[in-house]
């Protein structure tokens, strides 16, 4: 994923504020939307500090909006954007959210394993503001910087492999081959 295209909290919130009277929908797979009776159960802020395989320290903040589908359908129509904004305002009274934090939407149901996804395109479809979610995936930061992953070639330990199947020898405890 091109990390320059990630949605930041201030942009996500501003998009919602532009469309308070629309219905807020989340599409997690092609043709699959979070059920209309979903709830925003919590908004989490996570400070991430890591050291990647190239030995470089990285840090960023994630704002995670958790969605939950109740087992029993409660509504035929998803919440309106202004209700989502009211929840955001309630959260922000207690927790100052980093405006540059990367937004992730956390969702799962009985047919879709819970995961955190990025808001991709946000489109207007009739009376709906549809947030199209894209999957998160692992990546190698060192390789994205044009470096090798992990220990430089000159420092990698060399080991000698021994194939005991071809020699008729067997590995025994203490022999040094296993």
Structure description:
The chain is built from four helices and seven strands, in the order αββββαβββαα. By secondary structure, it is of the alpha/beta class. Strand 6 (112-125) and strand 7 (128-135) form a beta hairpin. The longest helix has 14 residues, at 81-94. It is elongated and about 70 Å long.
Walk me through the topology.
Elements (H helix, E strand, L loop, with lengths): L8 H9 L5 E7 L2 E2 L5 E13 L5 E12 L12 H14 L7 E8 L2 E14 L2 E8 L5 H4 L19 H4 L11
Structural class: alpha/beta
Q: How many extended strands?
A: 7
**Oligomeric nature of the chains:** single chain
Residue share in helices? 10-25%
Shape from CA axes? elongated
Give the helix tally: 4
Which H/E pattern describes the elements?
HEEEEHEEEHH
Strand order of the largest sheet: 2-1-7-6-5-4-3
Largest sheet, strands/sense/barrel:
7 strands, mixed
What is the radius of gyration?
24 Å
> For the terminal residues, how far apart are their CA atoms?
41 Å
Q: Mean pLDDT across all residues, rounded?
A: 87
How much strand?
35-45%
Low-confidence stretches: none
State the gist of this model.
Helices cover 17% and strands 36% of the residues.
């Amino acid at each position: 994923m091109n990390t320059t295209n990630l949605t930041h909290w201030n942009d996500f919130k501003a998009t919602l504020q532009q469309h308070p009277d629309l219905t807020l929908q989340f599409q997690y797979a092609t043709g699959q939307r979070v059920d209309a009776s979903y709830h925003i159960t919590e908004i989490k802020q996570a400070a991430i500090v890591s050291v990647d395989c190239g030995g470089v320290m990285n840090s960023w903040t994630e704002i995670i909006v958790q969605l939950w589908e109740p087992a029993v359908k409660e509504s035929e129509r998803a919440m309106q954007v202004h209700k989502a904004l009211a929840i955001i305002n309630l959260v922000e009274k207690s927790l100052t959210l980093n405006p540059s934090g990367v937004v992730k939407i956390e969702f799962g149901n009985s047919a879709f394993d819970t995961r955190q996804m990025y808001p991709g395109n946000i489109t207007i479809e009739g009376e709906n503001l549809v947030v199209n979610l894209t999957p998160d995936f692992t990546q190698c930061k060192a390789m994205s910087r044009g470096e090798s992953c992990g220990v430089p070639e000159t420092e990698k330990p060399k080991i000698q492999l021994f194939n005991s199947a071809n020699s008729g020898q067997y590995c025994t405890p203490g022999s040094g081959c296993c």
